[in-house]
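Ticket closed. Logging final result for Tetraspanin.
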Amino acid sequence: MGLSCGARCAKGFLVTFNLIFWVSGCFIFAVGVYLLVDKEKITLFHLIADPDIGYALDQYLAWALVGIGGLVFFGGFCGCCGAIRENRCLLVTYFIFLFLIMGSELAVGILSVIFQNKTLTRLGELSTLLKEEYGIDGQLTEAFDFTQTKFNCCGIFGPQDYEGSAWMTQDLGKGDAVAKTCCILTNGDHLDPKPLNSSWCQSDKPTESSQFRHEEGCLHKLEDFLRDITILFVAIGCGAAALEIFGMIFSICLCKEV
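Final structure:
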């Protein structure tokens, strides 16, 4: 017996939906890979990494996006085959995949908010980390230098974070008051910073240093970075989950008719 008009419409919508579904899967996969391989993101993640696990919590969510993108490819294949061949078993499998993917995407969005709040409470501790590890731990030193260069800031709360630091007491800066990346640079390279005026940048006279040194701390800039990442995860998680609802509806409608 042929399919009813409504079932044929559901079949057509399901095939069309799967094309959109595959595109969304490619996008989710690409975002996850981008967050894991982009050098700037990796460097900033070093700065906010959880000390107990050695990675930023958002990096685990990025891996989750990569996995979800892979599931979308397989689930979309089941949906297309089930719709074209009008196979109830494949349609049921497709429905289950959509349900699991939707749950995973919602979990990513919810966890990103939880992780953001957890990380934000630790950002103030970076001032202590700078005092103890800047100039000693190469990876953290590069992360601080990159942050200061990228966001045009100095220290976490300000240049005063360098006072009494191991970097200063051990004379790792060779007499400098702040890191060179705190200065206004001519090249913008955190690995080889070239201050516009090094003498005045390192001056202990505020009237001189304020003209060639960044006086604002990096705390608020890092908070904005974390919020932007969270918004990205929430938008992907909730937006893609809403998309799955349509696929579930179409698959149920078609499954009842075949």
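The CA atoms of residues 102 and 241 lie 5 Å apart. No further action required.
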